[in-house]
Amino acid sequence: MPSDENTYNEISMLVHKYADAVIHRNGEQWASTWASDAVWDLGGGRLVEGIDSIKELWYGAMKGFEATVQTVLNGGVDADPSGNSASGRWYIQEHVVRTNGDRGILLAHYDDDYVLTEEGWKFSRRFLQPHYSGPYDLSAEFLCSAEKLRQRNVEGVDV
Question: How many other β-carbons are positioned within 10 Å of the β-carbon of residue 8?
Fold first, then answer.
């Protein structure tokens, strides 16, 4: 069984490989980060299951962007004692230029589940939790106020 430090490092590389593939619009690399029976939940009813549906959604979404830079900010991993699964949370920042010329920023985190496969760690589930999406001047509504978090049924909101 790998140590927690090794698990963290390997999953961190998986998360960074995902972000690198987004930046370079490399669908093959991006798809290689997912387990075949994975679930991708972008919120707002955009939930897809299985690698084929996940790839279809990603390729469709990427057509709406002229350029995207996704930066991984910080994160953590909790490994299952079995050594075959883990969960984690990673914060991201995404700068985008849409095909219509609009520019903006996404501040969010992913709640993840991972599975250890013969090829290494893969995402078995990614759930995007946006905190802000809008203009660079931060003039759009933030989605991480206590009220908004409670509306999204986020656990642990106590302030």
Answer: 18
Q: Which contiguous run of DSSP H or E holds residue 90?
A: strand 85-98
In whole angstroms, what separates CA 53 from the centre of its chain? 16
Q: Which SS3 state, helix, strand or coil, does residue 151 take?
A: helix
Domain count, the chain: 1
DSSP H or E segment with residue 133: strand 120-134
Identify the helix (H) or strand (E) that includes residue 21. helix 4-23
Closest CA to 121 of 33, 31, 2, 25: 33
Residue 159 lies in a domain: no
Residue 42 gets which letter from DSSP?
Answer: -
- Check: pTM over 0.85? Answer yes or no: yes
Q: What is the spatial distance between Cα 46 and Cα 10, in angstroms, rounded to a whole number?
A: 28
22-44 pLDDT, tens per residue? 999 999 999 999 999 999 999 87
Q: How far is CA 134 from CA 22, 98, 105, 106, 108, in A?
A: 19, 12, 6, 7, 12
What's 70's domain CATH number?
A: 3.10.450.50
